[in-house]
């Protein structure tokens, strides 16, 4: 906390910036935004080439703005532009790193770009109020209007590069990639965690009648299965040929959901009373199995009742095995 306070105190306040520094800040901001848009374009080019061309066009517009600002700075202050960036100004808007945005959906990336334009518009309006030079004020006002109009520009670029067929194709591709990278490994993990841990958990429960011991066994089984499933998924396919996406993302999805699936019916055994904990675990298992059937129906186009029959039947057999072994 003290470090953050010190860092904030070392930043300049926007109202204390000179007109030259405001122009320099605008130049560096336009450079950053153009770089971000080009990063978006490169990130999307393989799977969404039409949307990539939209971001290419937006980056070119940012370059035009930057050049206009540089020309203004040369006329007023000369060739040496002060080094000042967003992070040097207290309260100034920040941009999210591209690596944070790349895991978001296509529409979320477009929305992030729209938010960038809104922030830039507010900056230019505030900057225009701070300058007394007519040419500078006019340029900053024009840039504010341009940023406000970027939504129209983006729509124009979308109409130019994204036909209805191309948009539908990109949306289908995005959905397919989401299913392959996150849903499939996550569903496999949830099924493995929910079903495979039934036998050891309920066998321990009925064999010992001890809720704490049952919880520990369930915790160990869930975490162990999650680690194993995560590494197995990550090592099974690098995604280059199959198009299933990052092995790290798939491993995380499989590992986390496997652990969650097992913990769901292990956590009730934190309740000290055996039958209360067991009945609660029964209910959780029922909900888990129906959730798996819903996910299969929603994302894998498996008929709901067929998915429910397969999952519930498999779960019931494993559950029965655990109870029989534990009771014996």
Describe this structure in words.
- There is one protein chain.
- The protein has 328 residues and is mainly α.
- It is built from 13 helices and two strands.
- It has helices at 2-10, 19-45, 49-77, 98-101, 106-130, 134-148, 150-161, 164-196, 198-208, 211-236, 247-264, 274-299, 304-327, and strands spanning 12-13, 89-90.
- The chain has a two-stranded parallel ribbon with strand order 1-2.
- The chain is elongated, with a radius of gyration of 28 Å.
- The termini are far apart.
- Residues 1-9 have low confidence and may be disordered.
- Rg calc: 28 Å
Quickly give the structural class.
mainly alpha
Q: How many DSSP H or I helices?
A: 13
Largest sheet: 2 strands, parallel
What overall geometry do the principal axes of the alpha carbons give? elongated
- Strand percentage lies at under 5%
Q: What sequence of helices (H) and strands (E) makes up the elements?
A: HEHHEHHHHHHHHHH
Arithmetic mean pLDDT = 80
What is the strand arrangement across the widest sheet?
1-2
Q: What's the β-strand tally?
A: 2
Layout of secondary structure:
Layout: H1 2-10, E1 12-13, H2 19-45, H3 49-77, E2 89-90, H4 98-101, H5 106-130, H6 134-148, H7 150-161, H8 164-196, H9 198-208, H10 211-236, H11 247-264, H12 274-299, H13 304-327
Parallel strand pairs: 1-2
Helix pairs in contact: 2-3, 2-5, 3-6, 3-7, 5-6, 8-10, 8-11, 8-12, 8-13, 9-10, 9-13, 10-11, 12-13
Pick out its properties.
328 residues, 1% strand, 79% helix, single chain, mainly alpha, two-stranded parallel sheet
């Amino acid at each position: 906390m003290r470090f953050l306070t010190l860092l904030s105190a070392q930043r300049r306040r926007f109202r204390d910036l000179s007109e030259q520094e405001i122009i320099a800040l605008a130049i560096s901001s336009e450079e950053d935004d153009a770089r971000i848009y080009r990063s978006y374009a490169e990130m999307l080019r393989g799977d969404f080439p039409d949307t990539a061309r939209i971001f290419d066009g937006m980056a070119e517009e940012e370059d035009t703005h930057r050049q206009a600002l540089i020309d203004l700075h040369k006329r007023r202050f000369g060739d040496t532009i002060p080094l000042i960036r967003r992070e040097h100004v207290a309260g100034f808007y920040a941009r999210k790193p591209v690596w944070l945005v790349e895991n978001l959906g296509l529409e979320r990336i477009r929305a992030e770009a729209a938010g960038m334009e809104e922030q830039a518009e507010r900056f230019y309006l505030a900057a225009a109020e701070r300058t007394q030079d007519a040419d500078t004020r006019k340029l900053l006002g024009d840039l504010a209007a341009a940023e406000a109009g970027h939504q129209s520009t983006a729509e124009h670029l979308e109409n130019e590069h994204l036909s209805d067929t191309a948009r539908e194709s990109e949306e289908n591709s995005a959905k397919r990639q989401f299913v392959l990278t996150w849903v499939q490994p996550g569903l496999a993990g949830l099924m493995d965690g929910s079903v495979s841990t039934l036998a050891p958990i309920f066998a321990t429960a009925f064999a010992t009648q001890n809720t704490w011991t049952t919880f520990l066994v369930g915790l160990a089984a869930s975490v162990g299965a999650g680690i194993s499933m995560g590494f197995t998924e990550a090592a099974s396919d690098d995604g280059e040929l199959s198009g299933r996406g990052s092995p790290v993302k798939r491993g995380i999805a499989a590992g986390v959901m496997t652990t969650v699936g097992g913990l769901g019916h292990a956590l009730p055994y934190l309740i000290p009373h055996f039958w209360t904990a067991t009945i609660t675990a029964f209910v959780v298992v029922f909900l888990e199995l129906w959730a798996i059937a819903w996910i299969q129906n929603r994302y894998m186009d498996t008929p709901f009742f067929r998915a429910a029959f397969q999952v519930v039947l498999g779960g019931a057999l494993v559950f029965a095995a655990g109870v029989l072994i534990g009771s014996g």
